[in-house]
Amino acid sequence: MKQSHLLGALGACAITFCSMSAHAALIGVLPATLGGTDYQAYYDDQLDISWTANANINGINNWDNQVAWVASLDIDGVTGWHLPSMDVNGDGVIVNCSSTLTSQAACKDNEYGHLFNYGAGIVFGSGITTSSPGPFSNIQFDKYWSGTESGPASAWRLGFNGGQQLASLKGLNGFAWAVRTGNVSTVPVPAAVWLFGSGLIGLIGVARRKKA
Predict the structure, then answer these.
(1) Residue 136 to residue 155: CA distance in whole angstroms
(2) Distance of alpha carbon 82 from its chain centroid, rounded?
(3) Per-residue pLDDT of the chain (212 residues; tens, 9 = 90+)
(4) Are 117 and 103 in contact (CB under 8 A)?
(5) DSSP per-residue string spanning 102-166
(6) Which of 43, 63, 106, 154 has an alpha carbon 20 to 30 Å from 196's alpha carbon atom?
(7) Domain extents for the chain?
(8) CA 109 centroid distance within chain
(9) What is the pTM of this model?
(10) Those residues with Cβ within 8 angstroms of residue 154's Cβ, 6 or more apart along the chain or in another chain
């Protein structure tokens, strides 16, 4: 990740979509320009993951191809992206977040379900949908693949037009939304970037001494 983007994210990490709680927010990170608000991702402080601002970077494809794509995704040097989990604790149970009997805490086990029903907040019904996209762009009507498999040949999906979640054959086409664990604004700048910056500063110093 570029140093300028890291500094911009830390210095101007604006809260752009909030619930009633001051501690529930989607926080803009990875600005494309230094100090800008053209964020390339949003940190979800309820789930402690970062969602790409563009919900349709790779278009529609089958599950295997979407998994391969997200594993190779690089946004300004930030890698480690993956498809959202619909079974975070790995117990094999897919929580139905649309049920009024399901608590918000329990819904956190389903990252797609939580985003659709709660957004980054704690109030049911304040979530992210195709008609209420919040700070995100390009949220599609068709279903999105998760990284949660339901068997060797199928995986779970969720539709952001109505919140429908179901297991589908991996060969079917669906969209993919990339997420990364934690707040990507805190990802260390790669050593190569620091070395390049140090070398550039040294060259500038040498040029100034010669001019003097």
Answers:
(1) 24
(2) 9
(3) 444 443 343 333 443 444 334 457 899 999 999 999 999 999 999 999 999 999 999 999 999 999 999 999 999 999 999 999 999 999 999 999 999 889 999 999 999 999 999 999 999 999 999 999 999 999 999 999 999 999 999 999 999 999 999 999 999 999 999 999 999 998 764 443 333 343 444 444 444 555 55
(4) no
(5) S-HHHHTT-HHHHHHHHTTSSSTT----SS--TT-B---SSEEEEEEEEETTEEEEEETTT--EE
(6) 43
(7) 3-211
(8) 16
(9) 0.80
(10) 167, 168, 169, 170
Question: Which residue matches tokens 């100090």?
Answer: 35
Which of 78, 100, 47 has its CA nearest to residue 185? 78
Q: At 133, list the tokens.
A: 């996209």
For residues 86 and 12, what is the distance between their CA atoms, to the nearest angstrom? 31
β-partners of residue 27 are: 15, 43
Cβ-based neighbour number of residue 35 at 10 Å: 12
